[in-house]
Amino acid sequence: MNETVMTEAAPAKKSNRKVIITCAITGAIHTPTMSPYLPITPDEIVADALKAAEAGAAILHLHARNPETGQPDQTPEAFAPFLPRIKQATSAVINITSGGSPYMKVEERVLPAATFKPEVASLNMGSMNFGLFHLLDKYKEFKHPWEKTHLENTRDLVFRNTFKDIEYILTTCYDNGTRFEFECYDIGHLYNLAHFLERGLVKPPLFVQSVFGLLGGIGPHPEDVMHMKRTCDRLFGDQYRWSVLGAGRNQLPIAAMAASMGGNIRVGLEDSLWAGRGKLATSNADQVRLAAKIIEGLGLEVASPDEAREILELKGADKTNI
User: What is residue 244's three-state secondary structure?
Assistant: First the structure.
């Protein structure tokens, strides 16, 4: 009588593709009234950034705020109380905004990146209408007078990022070894980036951050996401690393779509205050954990900070001025 030999099935192989999670800790869009969990003070920014890194964020994208009012503050002095503390406590890559706030001049916006020479700095790749006024309808009262004015004035706001402005930031930081998170809010911004690549003012691998769902930029429809990816492929080939952020409730659906298409993910309270339908995120780490679940659910792996450095060819934390 023949006996059937039973053998255990071989375990499924994991994908070796590493997905970078960037976490944008506070930003300049949301205001203190909108969420009690939005980090405002240096202590709050440090605590939230470290929790996000522990949850799996390889890159921490950082803005500064006035600790009393919560207003965006792009002076190097506003960044100084928290940047060294974050660097000392985590190996996560520090990414400093050069976008600041749409109300600021480019000379003001670039100062923190020029001063601290981080591994990564953000760079907006084109001018755009930047509408936040539709958020006014959601709040009857505001904690600080500046908040309502900040939102209302965006009815007539162009976030200026001319070719001259972009070139100014690139040349100011060119000798620092800082790489850029190229924030592209529309298809034309990709062509602007291609222009600077052709001129040799930016070098691959390009870290392209596609932004979806902000009023004035490209929408959050799946066709928009695919159009961005197709255009990146055509313009940059293998010379770029793609990442996405979806504004507000679009954050996680777009993250899931992009991760399945070979992209990386940006989350954080700068981009969305939510951790589910009608549920405020109590920290940036809430969103990082949700992003990590998406990545792992697709059979992929979350990149460590050092893996992110390798993927993006960064200079290393020891070569910054933080």
Answer: strand
**Residue in 30, 38, 27, 42 with CA at minimum distance from that of residue 95:** 27
How high is the pLDDT of residue 55?
Answer: 98
pLDDT of residue 8: 52
User: What secondary structure letter does DSSP report for 83?
Assistant: H
Beta-bridge partners for 246 = 212
The whole-model pTM stands at 0.94
pLDDT digits (tens, 9 = 90+) for 274-285: 999 999 999 999
Which residues neighbour 7 within 8 Å (Cβ) at sequence distance 6 or greater?
Answer: none
The CA-atom distances, in angstroms, between 152 and each of 26, 142, 155, 271 are 20, 13, 6, 19
pLDDT in tens, 231-262: 999 999 999 999 999 999 999 999 999 999 99
* Rounded-to-integer distance, Cα 203 and Cα 64, Å: 28
Strand partners, 280: 274
3-state SS of the chain: helix, strand, coil percent to 5?
40, 15, 40
Report the distance separating Cα 155 and Cα 133, nearest Å: 6
Instruction: With beta carbons less than 8 A apart as the criterion, state whether 285 and 81 touch.
Output: no
